Amino acid sequence: MDFESKDTQLNHINEASDNNLKIENEEETSIDLKAVFAALCKHKLLYIIVIPLSLIIGIIYAKSLPKYYKCQVTLAPELGGATGGGTLSSLASSMGYKVGGSKGDADAITPTLYPDLMNSVDFKTSLFDVKVHRMDSSRVMTYYDYLLYYQKTPWWSRLFSGKDTIRHEKVNPFMLTKKQTDIAKIINSNVVCDVDNKTGVITIDVTDQDPLIAAMMADSVKTRLQTFITRYRTNKARNDLESTKKLCIEAKRRYERARQLYGAFSDANQEVILESVRSKQEDLENDMQLQFNNYNALAASLQAAYAKVQAVTPVFTTLQSATVPTKKTSPQGSQIVLVFLFVGILIPTIYALAKEGELKRMIGI
User: What topology does it adopt in the membrane (predicted)?
Assistant: First the structure.
């Protein structure tokens, strides 16, 4: 019984000490919070000065940034040339020509590579000569000249930039000038292409300070991308078509010449019954028939080549056309002002806590 009473007394003593520690910690915490609040109140004049000043600076900064508008265009390309060939593919197959469908005929440039294509120097420099005009003017100019001379910049950036006397130089994608490289970088940031890997839908976003130019460039980029892909996918078929066309024209010329020789010889020797004359006439007739068969086969190949070009020509369905945006995309003035307000509150707070020694105490805790 004595041992049990001693253990009970020890337990009561431990519980009492723990409660005292908790009370002391709570008192220290409440004292720290009061000290922090007192330190902040001691420098309330600093808040009164810095917060309105930060708001004014934030508003001026947001108002000084140029407005940007975004136009979006979406396309759905036809994937695979053979699937869309229809009767043309059947016609080509009946003539002994296979139109697409195999791994060997697969495109080297798939839709997932279109963004890389649009980021290439050749594609960006091809946009230099696109004709555009601003919303508030009917003067037509190139996109290069617009980006070079009519881009708005914040007032503080103009303080450190000299007068631009760069003249327009001939564009050589292999060796761009510094100014042409800068313009290409602007286009690279303004024109963005994205492809959905699941659906294959192509999204083209064009951002610009002028809403009309944003829409015009979105439509131009869409057209140029379609043209490039069409040329690429039909390049081999068009080359085959031109070669077959030349061979067909030459075969027709030889056939007509052989027919004329046979007709002239037959007309001149109608009453002649010599065996040598008959042999010569048969030779001319056989040559004429040979040239005709050759020309007939090439004519069929020419029709198949036309069918193949049509079959491999890609089809693009425009899901969303270019329209002139009515609302700006950036800058977000309210967000910018909130950031400046946060900084305007944070700086006096850190200064006040550091001045009164509370910051070290809080870090120590």
Answer: Multi-pass membrane protein
State how far the Cα of 153 lies from the Cα of 335, in Å rounded to an integer: 20
Q: What is the DSSP string of 101-137?
A: -SGGG--SS-GGGHHHHHTSHHHHHHTTT-EE--TT-
User: If you search the block for the tokens 């002139």, which residue do you land on?
Assistant: 324
Question: Helices 2-42 and 44-64: crossing angle, nearest 10°?
Answer: 60
Place of tokens 């519980």: 15
Q: What is the dihedral of CA 197, 198, 204, 205, to 10 degrees?
A: -90
- Beta-carbon contacts of 151 under 8 Å, excluding residues fewer than 6 positions away, are 66, 186, 209
Check: CB of residue 348 under 8 Å from CB of residue 48.
no
Q: Taking a C-beta distance cutoff of 8 angstroms, is the pair 42, 352 a contact?
A: yes
Q: Across-strand partners of 73?
A: 204
- Indicate the SS3 state at residue 87: helix
Cα 300 to Cα 96: distance, rounded to the nearest angstrom: 10
Q: Which amino acid is at 362?
A: M
Q: Residue 6: is it exposed, middle or buried by C-beta count within 10 angstroms (0-12/13-18/19+)?
A: exposed
